[in-house]
Amino acid sequence: MRAMVYHGPGNKSWEEVPDPTIIDDTDAVVRVDTVTICGTDLHILKGDVPAVTDGRILGHEAVGTVTEIGAGVKNVKPGDRVLVSCITACGRCRYCRDQAYGQCRGGGGWILGHRIDGTQAEQVRVPFADNSTYPVPPGVSDEQVLMLADILPTSYEVGVLNGGVRPGDTVAVVGAGPIGLAAILAARLLSPGHVVAIDLADSRLDAARNFGADIVVNNGQQDPVARVNDLTDGLGADVAIEAVGVPETFELCTRLIRPGGRVANVGVHGKPAPLHLEDLWIKNVTITTGLVDTYSTPTLLRLVAAGQIDPARFVTHRFALADFPAAYDVFTRPGDTGALKVVLTRA
């Protein structure tokens, strides 16, 4: 089969690799029908995730068809159409029993495209298949459900729920890329008073309006702290969601937040970010971090099936599976291409 293979920072190749096989009796092999690229893959290619080594197949999101299962798999069978989650769960360890699947100590967690070969391939081996795949509801498209592999549960759990968004809150989302837009969409489920999107690109701020932001701020042209303070009688945001993963945006979140507010970091950081405790210690500010656990995936699937949210809105570009290099080129240059999410499908 062919796959997108990592060969060190800045180097990747669409190349021939061996087909995956069943290793453990809880494995399944899934034929990849629809797949996407994540911002985390770009962090890997920048060298921000040193655990990813030369020769690793990238990717941790897919929708596909089960072709083979191990003897211990009970809940899926060959021919089933499934969502392959970005998080793998053994289902037995202390963290899995607490639904903290991202911290699985039984061989799961974020392993696809990280510590084992991932989904940007014609086939993928999925460990703990009973706990790490989800049946695709009837009537739901591959593109809709694919966005539930990572960006929607990540933004909902790590941004909105960790941030404690409540009805009437002023929520500032720093970064209007796919994760930030998903945070805006998810925050709207909890009836905030205002959602403020902050970004340097006007095209992404236009997208933020379409996804539910009622106020947008280009922080290259306007002071976002002053704008949020004007909106809140000088208090600041109730919740600030960091959705980029660079020191400047994290620091901006800590300046946007009100006393007693919550900063929820979602972005993947590759270098240290300053933490100004000399200012924050007296303000009762809560800062949360997190890797997605995907405990919300069943809820989000029900919302999609019921027509309450339509994640296919994220998809801006479509490619054949063999066109992975072109898809990466488009996704890597969103300022030029307008890309939010790219989707690749089997011909």
Automatic annotation (TrEMBL):
> What cofactor does its activity depend on?
Zn(2+)
What domain of life is recorded for the organism?
Bacteria
Keywords linked to the UniProt accession: Metal-binding, Oxidoreductase, Zinc
One family name in Pfam for this protein: ADH_N
**Which CDD domains is this protein grouped with?**
FDH_like_ADH2 (cd08286)
* Family as reported in the entry's similarity comment: Belongs to the zinc-containing alcohol dehydrogenase family.
Q: What is this protein called?
A: Alcohol dehydrogenase
Q: Organism source for this protein?
A: Micromonospora lutea
